[in-house]
Design goal:
The protein is an alpha+beta fold. It is built from 22 helices and 26 strands. The strands form eight sheets. Strands 6, 7, 8, 9 and 10 form a five-stranded antiparallel sheet that branches.
Amino acid sequence: FYRSGPRVLLIEKNTGYRAVSNDKTEKLAVESSFARSVVWGFEIVAETGSSVMVDATDFFLRDAQDISTRLGRAQQGNYAVDSTRSTIFLPRTRSFPDNTEVEAIISYTGEQKLDDKGKPVSDILSTVVPDTNSVTVHLHHSFIRLPDDNYQPLPYDPRAGIIGSPQGNGFVDYAVPIGEPIRVLYGRRHRLQKQDPQADVSESVEPIIYYLDPGVPEPVRSALMEGASWWNQAFEAAGYKNAFQVKLLPEDADPMDVRYNVIQWVHRSTRGWSYGSSVLDPRTGEILKGHVTLGSLRVRQDYLIAEGLLAPYQQGALPDTMLEMSLARIRQLAAHEVGHTLGFEHNFAASVNNRSSVMDYPFPLIRFDRDGLLDLSDAYGVGIGEWDKRTVMYAYQDFPEEFDDARSRQEILEETIAEGFLYVADEDSRDPGTANPLGNLWDNGADAIAELEHLLNVRSYALANFSENNIRPGRPLATLEEVLVPIYLLHRFQIQAVGKLIGGQYFNYAVRGDGQPAPTTVTVEKQQAAIGVLIDTLDPSVLMLPQSVIDIIPPRPPGHALGRESFGRNTGVIFDPLAPAASAISLTLDVLLNQQRAARLNVFHAINPSLPGFETILYELAQVSWYAEKQTAVAGAIQRLTAGQLLDRLIVLANDSKTDNQVRAQAFLAIQKWDNFLASQKQAKTDRDWYAFYASARHTIALMMRDPASVKNGQKQPVPPGSPIGN
């Protein structure tokens, strides 16, 4: 805060540029070189001695989160803050020893965006507010006291699995000696010290305590307590005793108090992500407060998956397996999100490294028992992972005074590398087009191909046994579709894991001198096998629903409309048996026709002609669709779906200026070849379905050749949301 005459300015300092030095003039030179941001200006209304009072009402009642703009971008409509319906919310406006909290009720008024038929473009708002003309939310503001200067920042290392801070990309330090890196990045962590740093095992000066929301019901509450407490195993491995604890939030404690790390239980209209966020000192990366937000629907999504796998609602007692699996996932979820608030990054290689970390996104491990029945007893791991222990050792180890901290941390990393731990971060995993085959979300096992083949067998088993026993007695039979979706698409994430073998490259976050191997391209045999198994997922025999499943799903009854978790349909109220196939085809094509992967294939092929190029992908896709022996009935319809989606996708690739030029050329040539093929298919007239499809395809290709902008094809098939496992 800066006072000048009758006005007080709230100024945000520019912490991205600094001089970490004891020289005041050196610091001043940097501060004078870069702009600050004045967040707000306040008028002084009263003063007493050195204290002044300002009226901050307008500051708190503004659109601080720019929600009106975000609603517009999300095609929800035009909304603006209505000051007559906005006010300070006093129950959550209060002060604590180290922070002051102010909350405002902000109302946005306006109208939903409508389409040409006068219907809302999106139905999202109507699912979460009672009146779409008035969207009322709470915006919360926190003023938090910065800690003392006795904290030693943690050096960031890209191999350590810690989250970089501040701002994620560090700051520029103009005080470093010439020749040293000018950009500095710290890791984030809580302040933790041993009572006796000389001892191998010591209690901490002040333990890290997380407090669980008492609003969590049992048995979920106990599961969350247990899962979050797993982290104490890692701190024990780092030489601490009882340094990490989980307790129920006391009745007289307030979760807004910055002194309390909290695990919060929230409800949403649909399943969504859970979060592990932190309040940080922007100067050092010190975590002042960990704040975990867990969505309550996650546990129900796992229960739904178990229902689809086991078809448990037969006569007799309900098996405990479903609840046990769901609670096992909740334990892992609690540990995962708490891990973020302790300062740890995702490690999406843990699933191929013997479940080495809770910081992966785990897919349930589904196996067959000796009797050929599905076994979910080991669906999720138990306890903290060995990689997690290494990350805690690097970030939180308190070394004796005579030790060189920097050298000691490097020795921890050297041991981690020598022991063979794998680590792939978020940016090299989340997008399906990333290159490292080890980095995947919601996958299992060291052999991605074998796991995909196994999941397809599990899926086939579950679909063959799919019946009214998959839902509780008394439920509308139409709701079988909700159970069907995650089972039919059970292999969706393993498809992505296999896809990363194609045009893939194994690599580590190596630094000079650490002895880690150089990047290596996936072998030609492995890439060919991956292409083959993904092409097999497009076979109509894989994509066809059993007729027994189609026969038992009736139209939706009143009060049970289709939602975003359902398959699309072109058949009105009747269940569309081709819609699931269309979704599955889209998921496979997402992987095989990824622009980045296509460009990598061509580069690797140019370097080593024995490796497949993008042309190989196009050839195999054509063989399974356009050039395959024409099938009839439902199998033929699925074949045409594949060919049609393939044509649409290639039209997009061929006309997208952001696509690599060689990839565009190959897509264009493939379309031209198909056009020549279609012209030769005189005999197709004997099959009216194929004849109509060919005529439509030729028309689309002709339009593309004449005027690419006029082609409306290329819209991706909508697919029910999958991640997070239970947007």
